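pasting for the record
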Amino acid sequence: MGSGVTVCFYLMIGTGVAVALWLGEGPHLESDRLFRTLTAPFFWPLYLPVLLTGPSVQGIAAMPPLPKSTQVNEDDGMASLIAQVETELDTALRSLDGWAEDVLSGEKHRIGELRTAWHQQASHIRELDQLLRQTAVPGEAPAISPEPIIGDVDPGEVKPSRISECEKSRLENIRKLKHVRRKMYEDLMATLAWVRQLVTMIHLAKFTGAPASRALELVQQIAAAVEGVSEVNQYTSRSPD
């Protein structure tokens, strides 16, 4: 078979591939599809795998990512901050290797408790947020008038309405719940900030040639933070007053 016949068959196959590329469905722009069609008769072996994969596979691969509104992972800020502090803490503790690696032997358990306490406290705050959202109804009006019905009763003998007293008590309890929530949140943020400060002090002590006893002191202070977090986690069992 001569070279002319080979070239003829080559171009015929390329023309078929070009037509298939032009008619095929795909996410490509018009200019991109035109370029593929014009170059396919000469470079069709490069485009043949594209046709063999099928338009459905191409479409799936080219699908844009889901918008953020449809993503399941929701973050309220506390989770991100806790994760950031945990990362910084892990980095600082790993830096003890070769300098004060024996420091963690007696504090690993309490540091683990500290991490757990952070997440528990954040969970309690979220529960309170959800509860307060349920109790706060904008424009809420009582189903029954809070004022007593006065008929033939002497106005001087009318006692305060039980409905009014219940509503007043309810609002007071909501105020206390808000106080508890604010207290827990402020203490969590303060503890995280304190640990981040101690983490930087560990790095500073290492790179300034401080003795291992300094590392022990700082790690013990970090571990001791669990006591304050645990106390706040039990705050709901006591009256905010």
